[in-house]
Fold:
Amino acid sequence: MILALLSDTHDNAITTLAALDILAVHKPAMYLHAGDLVSPEMLAHFSGLPFHFVFGNNEYDHAALRSRSKALDLHCHGYLAEFDFDGKRLAMLHGHDHALMQELLAGNSYDYLVHGHTHVRRDERSGRTRILNPGALHRARTRSIALLDTATDSLTFLPVLTASS
Structure:
């Protein structure tokens, strides 16, 4: 399964739309956003996509985000999302709750742990868990997203360039 990984868009619509254009070519089965989407208005950009997101530390109106995501048939998971597919387990959180992140890693029950928050790309292993951060689409030296193929366990970081980059 091809998964699109995004994080830390911080209401940056121009870069988010550029990222979605890049990802569309790859036809991901799911779009996973690891938090700091920020405003409910940003959800409109993901309308019609199989989109799942978690809250970060910069989402303040959780009720509005939940309501807007429901209206657009998108999936809000609160602070933690868990998925099973292709015989793999994936957890997604923003990463600002360090205790929760450590607890998930200590349990050693996930194949993938996807997070954001640091605005820095990451691909490393801890026990059986591959820890992934796609980077950020705002306040990042190189704005990036990622594609994860769970069937082959391959990860590709994709830079996102805009006229303002």
Notes: The chain has a mean pLDDT of 95. DSSP finds three helices and eleven strands in the chain.
